[in-house]
Design brief:
267 residues, alpha/beta, TIM Barrel, two-stranded antiparallel sheet, 10 strands, 41% helix
Length: 267
């Protein structure tokens, strides 16, 4: 069993417990359940933004503890003030040290879109995502069937949530449906956990017709972002680079300043 298989096995048990403890009717009573969401797509495409989805990630299976005691309120506000187009929050507990309350806290203090990054394998989690204040959810093609992706995407849209569909290989492209307008290329192999930006370069030609193209994992410098932007990506999900700093929001601020300084030379 590789890392991803173990995560999904654990997640099925976790969701089963959650469904027994917190019924759907209770989730639907949340103040966020009827609230209007903020469009991830619109923020990524805004001309006054840089397309960066700044992530709050406390730990990971590949790196272990990254920033376990990060001040989520301060970091998320700082992310937004530094110019992030959106904020991604890991809510998986066993492997990433996150929790639903982290996302709700981010939602409380920010007006930009908030992406729930987790391993969605059940419709229950989609309703849960709306109830905790998410504007968008991540669906991972490698752990879902084409039919599940289509149904989950339609359900999310019915609740006002947008969907970032994550792809890692050319074979997974077949799982994209007409409902998926935001597609991300993950440069991390979820089985081996290795990272290679070449994955985005190889797969972007297969995303013709997709309105929002996001590259995930492995960006280490403004030069990386500019090069990926030049080949067609308009969204850039970055987590570890910022989170390994004691003050992630300042790391993003410095990154954005360097990006703006270098933009003219790449124009």
């Amino acid at each position: 069993m590789n890392t991803l298989e173990k995560i999904i096995s654990d997640k099925r048990l976790f969701v089963k417990e959650k469904k027994e403890l917190i019924p759907l009717k209770l989730l639907e009573k949340s103040i966020y359940y009827e609230s209007k969401t903020v469009s991830l797509k619109e923020y990524i495409l805004r001309k006054d933004k840089n397309g960066i989805i700044a992530e709050i990630k406390k730990r990971s299976p590949s790196l272990g503890n990254i920033n376990l005691y990060v001040d989520i309120e301060k970091t998320s506000i700082g992310y937004m003030q530094a110019g992030a187009s959106a904020i991604s929050v890991l809510t998986d507990t066993p492997n990433f040290g996150g929790k639903n309350e982290d996302l709700t806290l981010v939602r409380k203090f920010n007006f930009c879109p908030v992406l729930r990054k987790d391993f969605i394998i059940d419709e229950y989690q989609i309703i849960e995502s709306k109830s905790i204040g998410a504007d968008a959810i991540l669906l991972i093609a490698s752990v879902l069937t084409k039919e599940e992706i289509k149904n989950f995407t339609k359900q999310a849209h019915s609740l006002g949530l947008e969907v970032l569909l994550e792809i890692h290989s050319k074979e997974e492209m077949d799982k994209i449906s007409e409902y998926n307008t935001i597609v991300g290329i993950n440069n991390r192999n979820l089985g081996s956990l290795s990272i290679d930006l070449q994955n985005s370069r190889l797969l972007i030609p297969h995303l013709k017709g997709i309105e929002v193209k996001i590259t995930e994992s492995g960006i280490k410098s403004p030069e990386d972002l500019l090069e990926l932007r030049s080949i067609g990506f308009n969204g850039f999900l970055i987590g570890t680079l910022f989170m390994k700093s004691s003050r992630p929001h300042l790391a993003l601020k410095q990154f954005v300043e360097e990006l703006q300084n270098k933009t003219s030379s790449y124009a």
